[in-house]
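Propose amino acids for all 376 sites.
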């Protein structure tokens, strides 16, 4: 495996850094194949919104396309336009729908709007009629999440006024689960059955309900198409339970300084840590501006090789401090590298320390961290 820098202007060189991310494209492809094989014969798309959950859509989507993924979901039109420049051939769907530019922007870049409003569905059908071509769009139905999607009664009105909405060649008809990370939540079968019933109005159209977690709720959740995001990047499908996915990201930072302190001395802002015994402290070049959550101060651990180092004191913007009392002095010299995420610290584990979810950890990884890529 070869590490290459993510910056487009870095021609084969890796800029020196004190903190960086290593994104394992091979692990992401492996995770995608794992889901694809699990849900086969359903089609497996890939969700790469928010710059592929912070890890770099312009590198990750081509690796997935190479592995056979044909359909990508993003949230915003701008994300889709950027992805179109990198991948001229694949299908790209935009979860936001027609905002902010309307149908022409989608037609121009061959993008697929996900239509969550009856008025947008009407507008798309009318636009397609005016250009004499039924361009692909996805219809989004709400089955209980009450966030986006056409509600049942609005769907009745749409189909009554525009009977052609039932026969329009939708690329897919989709809905989204509210509680899929809890395998035995009653919302899951409730939404599955509601979706199945609403979908009877669109005979022959590909149906899609499951994101990552939904893929693991049972074969009757896969329908014709699944839309995983989180699992590709190593986030587990369920809050409790095993993680079938490979860790895709490593966050590494260097030790800048190490020191010894006496009993009663404090460390960091607010004097939040007070040594109860002589302690060796190392200061690491990463803080909350890099995406290490401030809420994990005094709780989390980082790793020097396989050795866990407890985080002590508050996390600062650019720095954090760890207890290295148990480590040989020569191993914690300035320049030594520690992993904040990596083989010994999964994204979900750091998220639990910080009282959040893996999705938030990934999407808040600092933009100033260079992304280095291990090729698939
Ligand atoms: C974000 C999103 C997904 C992907 O969800 P994961 O839990 O990350 O797999 C799928 N569908 C919709 C509508 C989404 O908003």
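Proposal:
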């Amino acid at each position: 495996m070869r590490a290459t820098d993510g910056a487009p202007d870095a021609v084969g060189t890796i800029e020196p850094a004190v903190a960086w991310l290593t994104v394992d494209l091979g692990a992401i492809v492996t995770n995608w194949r794992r889901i694809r094989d699990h849900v086969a014969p359903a089609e497996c798309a890939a969700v790469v919104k928010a710059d592929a959950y912070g890890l770099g859509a312009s590198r990750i989507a081509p690796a997935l396309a190479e592995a056979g993924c044909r359909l990508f979901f993003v949230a915003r039109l701008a994300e889709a336009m950027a992805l179109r420049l990198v991948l001229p051939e694949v299908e790209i769907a935009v979860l936001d729908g027609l905002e902010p530019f309307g149908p022409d922007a989608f037609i121009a870049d061959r993008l697929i709007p996900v239509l969550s409003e009856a008025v947008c569905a009407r507008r798309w059908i009318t636009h397609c009629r005016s250009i004499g071509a039924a361009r692909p769009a996805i219809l989004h139905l709400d089955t209980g999440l009450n966030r986006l999607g056409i509600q049942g009664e609005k769907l009745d009105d749409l189909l009554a006024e525009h009977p052609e909405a039932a026969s329009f060649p939708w690329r897919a008809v989709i809905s989204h689960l509210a509680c899929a990370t809890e395998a035995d939540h009653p919302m899951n079968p409730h939404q599955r059955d509601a979706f199945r019933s609403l979908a009877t109005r669109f005979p022959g159209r590909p149906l899609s309900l499951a994101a990552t977690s939904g893929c693991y709720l049972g074969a009757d959740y896969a329908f014709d198409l699944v839309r995983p995001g989180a699992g590709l990047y190593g986030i587990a499908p369920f809050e409790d339970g095993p993680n079938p996915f490979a860790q895709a990201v490593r966050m590494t930072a260097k030790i800048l300084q190490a020191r010894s302190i006496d009993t009663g001395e404090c460390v960091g802002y607010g004097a939040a840590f007070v040594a109860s015994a002589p302690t060796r402290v190392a200061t690491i070049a990463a803080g909350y501006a890099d995406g290490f959550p401030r809420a994990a101060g005094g709780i989390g651990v980082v790793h020097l090789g396989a050795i866990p180092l407890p985080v002590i004191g508050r996390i600062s913007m650019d720095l954090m401090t760890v207890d290295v009392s148990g480590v040989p002095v020569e191993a914690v010299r300035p320049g030594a590298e520690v992993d904040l995420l990596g083989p010994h610290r999964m994204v979900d584990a750091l998220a639990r320390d910080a009282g959040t979810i893996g999705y938030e950890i990934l999407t808040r990884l600092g933009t100033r961290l260079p992304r280095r890529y291990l090729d698939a």
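The CA atoms of residues 236 and 243 lie 5 Å apart. DSSP finds eleven helices and 20 strands in the chain.
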